[in-house]
Amino acid sequence: MKKLTILVPIILILSLSTVIQGEKKENRQSNTSEKLTHKPLFHKGMITIKLKEGIGDFCKQRGAVSFNIPSLDAKASNYHVSLLEKRFIYNPDKLKKGMPDLSRIYRIEFPEDYSMLEVAKEFATDPNVEYAEPIPVSYLFSFPNDSLYGLQYYLQQVFAEQAWEVHKGEDGEEDVVIAIVDSGVDWDHEDLVDNLWQNLGEDVDGDGRVLQMTFPTGEWIFDPGDENSIDDDTNGYVDDFIGWNFYYGNNDPNPIPGSYKWTHGTQMAGYAAASTNNEIGVASLSWNLKFMPVQACWDCYVQQSYNAMIYAAENEADVISCSWGNYIFKSQANQEAVNYAQELGSIIVAGTSIDNTFELRYPASYPGVVSVAALNQLDEKASYSNYGPDIKISAPGDNMLTTNINNTYIHIGGTSASTPVVAALVGLVKSCHPNWTSDQVITQVLGTADDIDSINPGYENLLGSGRINAFRALTDTAVTLAQEISLDLYHWSFRDSDNDMSLQPGDTASLDLLLRNYNYGVGSDSATFTLISDHPSIVILNDSYSGSIPPDNYFTLEDVFPFIVGDAGSTYIAEFRLITTSEKEITWGDTLSINLLIAPQGFLVFQDSLAGNAYSGDFINEYLVNEGYNTFYTSQFPPSLEGFEAVFISLGNFGAELGQGTFFTMETTRTIKEYLEHGGRIFLDCGTFFGLQTFHSYPDVEFLEGLFGISETYFPMTYNEINLLTGCTGSICENLEFTDSDQGPFYFIETMTPNEHGMAAFEEEGYGTVAIQGAGEHGQRTFYMSYALGQLIDSDQGTREELLSRIVDWLLIGVEVPEFRVSGSGFRVEVYPNPAVEEVVVSVSGQRSAVSGEIRICICDLFGREVRTLVDELKSPGEYSVRMDVSDLPAGVYLVRVQAGGQSAVRKLIVQ
């Protein structure tokens, strides 16, 4: 049934023009600021835990949570856990042998002050817990609004007209249902309502419908004869006539947008299942398949996405279309929810986002999910579309017409749009072959795509099997998939013989590798993995391993490549290459690189290979080398910092569009955290290191702040050059000033508040604290500043060298400093007795040519300030000893610094 509308053609044309122009303006504005929109990665104040089998079944608890298990109750009490409930809503009757047991997965809540990572880590160590993890946030994939180009060009591009000559969705023997898990659907839209799924399990009055139109208004309502507030079909949902609204757990059977701010779901429903051949609006590739609206979000914040997915699967949705996803984090619990839905027979189709990156997105990158990239009208990768070996297939997604709220239509684009187009084809194939398994349907769709590699140079094997071809999907027979494998190294770690997370000469070690094959339906029963290294100090004891590669899944190579670490005389990076061969062609990842840091010692200086004037790595490295410190300078951040006496990290500034600077992953920040927890020493400069982690809700950011002596960080959305950078009283920067900097850009300079372990080190006039020195409970020492140290311009009251000298001395407090000597300096310094009480002797010896000329010997405190000058004069070649009374010096740690012949050396002195 349709609404009776007068003058439909005229009204639609006006509406189309108005909506498109309005949306273009709105989206231009949102795209400008989109990169600055807060997008946390994880939900705060909650985690997932999965209890081991047989531990018990727990009902929902609020307030004082109790497991009646001492170890779990202690953790619940320690972290003030206030809620325990099942993570997923599911129907136990659907559970079959071999399916994931969702009954053991729980969500717990606790105050947001606690780090999600810390709480998850504590629960994960409990013997009653199988795993614990933070809960990732999923987002709708937004889209660009390009200019109007044509009406539904994409249907011709995918050969829809030829396909409809073979089969139309409405002609299928059984109804095929496409679930739109999204922001809700304006389901009574004139071009959608006829294809709306109706849950006849709730049809109490037996009239074959749960909707009816009221006259004379033409409004669609739920059938009053069916509204009885009873779960008639026993699926766990009362009066769920056409789907469900899961937004924030609402008990709402009406999956319609509560606000017209977000119209995403209505647009996706049009692509998947708009009414076709009805003389109005737009057509859909599926030609009148049914759609099930399941609302999972509001304002792009997809909180209940996986519960919505489970609902759709349990209510027998054949296809689940997901134009959303979360960034970076692969959740085990969400993976199990996906597996659960797949085991129930649902095919999940998901977009890969519009970041034009190679990065993984979830659920698109989970095994078995049909991940979709977007193309333009020429079958070229859309400029915004993600790409990579994880992509299963591509489809048009650029500037395509679809339904919009209030009976209007709109041109939009993105992987959001291409995803329901693929879902429509999957549903169409299922309708044509109702007895086919999910594997047969997916194989048919992937195996009949048109190869577009030649049209996309540089993206070969990174856009899936090609662009969908609806006609071939309905007509080709005996379809097979290309016998190709795409490999990726998802994660790696090493084991060393002394288990100190530091590879030192003489260690025997091995690699643990987690690999992924992205190709659907194609694996290898006979693969050979060979590990090689050209570094002369690495001896691989067993370089070959035979195993199998599963189709579209993860697999591990654990402890199969033992090797011996040799001594190269200094810190070095050893490159390993994993070479894979098999009877199947490996189109991606046949050679994968792993770089290991060997023999870490002295100082590490890290700066990304990016060049720019907001970095300090070059300056810091040159200074440390000239001062005689044993320094290793690299652009590859190691998986562990253990073994280094101090670490200097420069990350630059990210600029107005957050497109510059060096952004750290969660694993990298965790490496820093672990190093500081073991008493490490770190200098770090970055425009907004903690701000961006908070921006993305990294789970350990608050603890990392605490380790740096910071209680709070602020992320001003402004531009701020240096006016007057003043060293704070009592800090190592006291009496230093800088009035200018060569740095650029100056966006989002972070300001901070110290905690009880930190002290403000620099104040920027009229702006706030921009540097903090920290000394923590683990023995760690830190110095963090928001401006680039290496770009400061010297003044009468401060030089970069003086500032860095003080920072080095600050970091070295309590460190057993060995003799630092520049290679080839030709002299050495001895200090004895050490510790000293009354008197100390400083002896300088070595090559006569080195120990000559202008010689300066002084004693400095750990703020870099000279407290005694022993020698400052021209000397003829020779060896010298200087005796000094230290009885009047306060007890503590000092540094003896010797400069001669343009070189220098430093020794630590302890006065008791």
Write the layout of secondary structure elements.
Layout: H1 8-34, E1 42-51, E2 61-62, H2 70-78, E3 83-86, E4 105-109, H3 116-124, E5 129-136, E6 138-140, H4 153-157, H5 160-166, E7 177-182, E8 211-214, E9 219-222, E10 244-245, H6 264-273, E11 290-295, E12 301-302, H7 305-314, E13 319-322, E14 324-327, H8 332-343, E15 347-351, E16 361-362, E17 370-375, E18 393-396, E19 400-404, E20 408-412, H9 415-432, H10 438-447, H11 470-475, E21 484-496, E22 508-517, E23 524-533, E24 538-540, E25 544-549, E26 553-565, E27 572-582, E28 585-588, E29 591-598, E30 603-607, H12 617-626, E31 631-634, E32 646-650, H13 666-677, E33 681-685, H14 689-695, H15 701-707, E34 710-714, E35 725-727, E36 737-738, E37 751-754, E38 758-764, E39 768-775, E40 781-785, H16 800-811, E41 820-821, E42 827-832, E43 839-846, E44 853-860, E45 866-875, E46 880-885, E47 892-900, E48 903-911
Parallel strand pairs: 7-11, 7-13, 10-11, 13-15, 15-17, 17-18, 21-28, 30-31, 30-32, 32-33, 33-40
Antiparallel strand pairs: 1-4, 1-5, 2-3, 3-4, 6-12, 6-14, 8-9, 14-16, 19-20, 21-22, 22-26, 23-25, 23-27, 24-26, 27-29, 34-37, 35-36, 35-38, 38-39, 39-40, 41-48, 42-43, 43-46, 44-45, 44-47, 47-48
Helix pairs in contact: 6-9, 7-8, 9-10, 13-15
Question: What does the model show?
Answer:
The chain has 912 residues and is α+β, with helices and mostly antiparallel strands. The chain is 19% helix and 31% strand. It contains 16 helices and 48 strands. The strands form eleven sheets. The chain has a nine-stranded mixed sheet with strand order 31-30-32-33-40-39-38-35-36, sandwiched between helices. Strand 10, helix 6 (264-273) and strand 11 form a beta-alpha-beta unit. Helix 6 runs parallel beside helix 9 (415-432), helix 7 (305-314) runs parallel beside helix 8 (332-343) and helix 13 (666-677) packs parallel to helix 15 (701-707).
